[in-house]
Amino acid sequence: MKNNIAIKVDNVTYFYNSSEQNVINDVLDCVTLSVEEGSFTAVLGHNGSGKSTLAKHMNALLLPKGGSVTAFGMDTRDEGLLIEIRRPVGMVFQNPDNQIVSNVVEEDVAFAPENLGIPTEEIRKRVDEALKMVGMYEFRQHAPHLLSGGQKQRVAIAGVLAMHPRCIVFDEPTAMLDPRGRADVLKIISMLKKRGVTVILITHHMDEAALSDRVVVMNDGKVVMDGGPREVFTHVEELRKLGLSVPDTTELIYELRCDGYKLPLSALGVEECADELAGYILGRQG
Ligand SMILES: Nc1ncnc2c1ncn2[C@@H]1O[C@H](COP(=O)(O)OP(=O)(O)OP(=O)(O)O)[C@@H](O)[C@H]1O
Ligand SMILES: [Mg+2]
User: Fold this and answer.
1) For a pocket test of ligand 1, which of 51, 63, 202, 205 has the largest count of ligand atoms closer than 8 A to its C-beta?
2) Residues 60 and 172 placed together within one structural domain of the fold
3) 224 & 251 share domain
């Protein structure tokens, strides 16, 4: 059976209107990408490669100058569908401070569903449920500005979850967080994936991308690689040329291979990498 498409980006071109005349650079250059419902896609690319611009097209924050974007079958250029599109496609950004709008955690989480005109009782239920999902329920009466960066980001995610989205686009959600905050956000992402929510994660952390089903690599506004993480990360040298690294496990195996050790570059997880190394050592001894 064919899977449903959550987001379809079809031959999209975009440029920002510049104040300087004659300077029009395509920030997105004929980007085509279909994201299956329920999948977990990571988007990589060096600074300025167009990742955030692409993300903002997914829920009509930006509209394509050429080509089209459809979210759950709805064309983002159709102004009449704006609310219908923003409801199922949530966005989480890098800086939690810019996403918090209220002085009390639970009011902040209720903000977006209130604007949709959802009945108060239903909102109460959704807010409690969302705060529990991100492990922030006991902070519901707190002031968001007194929370840690990681806690604020979890509140921002709860605000998106309260909308009951079918897809969430995370634009470097862990960039400003410490390791503990990062781990908490990644745990939430893996829980969302288990619940069938479509996840698109823009990240500079290769180990985060390694958790995905699919890695899309962007360079100068184009999609230049697209495949499973095992496949994409075997292209160590090409990724380096694009200014990107690979997960630490791949790096270790890559260096060992350069020294003549015959280990598979596709061993991605820490356990898997350790098993390959142990197998190799034991094999040589046996
Ligand atoms: N509001 C804007 N006005 C003009 N140019 C912009 C604007 N936002 C982004 N750009 C330019 O568009 C290009 C792509 O930016 P974008 O933010 O999409 O990249 P990115 O891949 O998300 O980068 P990063 O990894 O730094 O977040 C860059 O050259 C950037 O300078
Ligand atoms: Mg960005």
Assistant:
1) 51
2) yes
3) no
Which protein residues touch ligand 1 with a CB less than 6 Å away?
16, 27, 45, 47-53
The ligand that comes nearest to the alpha carbon of residue 51 is 1
Range of the domain at 50: 1-88+167-176+198-229
Q: How far apart are CA 267 and CA 258, in angstroms?
A: 16
Residues 14 and 80 in one domain: yes
145 within some domain = no
State both tokens at 147: 């929370």
CATH number of the structural domain spanning residue 6: 3.40.50.300
CA distance 116 to 248: 44
Ligand sitting nearest the alpha carbon of 47? 1
Query: What's the pLDDT tens digit per position in 29-87?
Result: 999 999 999 999 999 999 999 999 999 999 999 999 999 999 999 999 999 999 999 99
Residue 268 lies in a domain: yes
Say how many Å lie between the CA of residue 217 and the centre of ligand 1.
16
Q: How far is the CA of 27 from the centre of ligand 2 (A)?
A: 12
Q: What is the pTM of this model?
A: 0.94
Rounded to the nearest angstrom, the distance between the alpha carbon of 132 and the centre of ligand 1 is 34
User: What is the tally of structural domains in the chain?
Assistant: 2
DSSP state string for 141-207: TS-GGGS-HHHHHHHHHHHHHTT--SEEEEESTTTT--HHHHHHHHHHHHHHHHTT-EEEEE-S-HH
